[in-house]
């Protein structure tokens, strides 16, 4: 496989990882906040905070993996 094709595959992988990190923020942060706003429910603040924090950590890890993947692109 030539260098250009390898670089494109690397970019595709990095983009997929970054989209997964965005999905984690949407599912783990925005969706619970919307549920609280629209239903008026009062979940445990500790449980909600812990869940949001866990999703943010996963999102940041995926974003970091995407950045590290892009660093493998050959000039």
In short:
The protein has 75 residues and is mainly α. It has helices at 3-39, 45-70. The chain has one domain (3-70).
Overall pLDDT, averaged? 94
Strand content: under 5%
Number of helices: 2
Low-confidence stretches: none
Q: How does the overall form come out from the CA principal axes? A: elongated
**Strand and helix order:** HH
Radius of gyration: 17 Å
In helices, the fraction of residues equals over 70%
What's the count of strands? 0
> Which sheet architecture does the biggest sheet show?
none
- Domain count, please report it: 1
Give an account of the 3D structure.
The protein is elongated and about 55 Å long. The mean pLDDT is 94. The chain is mostly helical and 75 residues long. It has two helices and no strands. It has one domain (3-70). α1 runs antiparallel to α2 (45-70). It has helices spanning 3-39, 45-70.
């Amino acid at each position: 496989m030539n260098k250009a094709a390898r670089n494109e595959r690397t970019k595709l992988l990095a983009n997929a990882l970054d989209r997964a990190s965005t999905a984690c923020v949407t599912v783990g942060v925005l969706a619970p906040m919307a549920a609280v706003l629209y239903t008026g429910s009062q979940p445990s603040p500790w449980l909600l905070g812990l869940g949001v924090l866990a999703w943010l950590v996963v999102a940041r890890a995926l974003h970091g993996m995407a950045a590290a993947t892009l660093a493998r692109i050959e000039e």
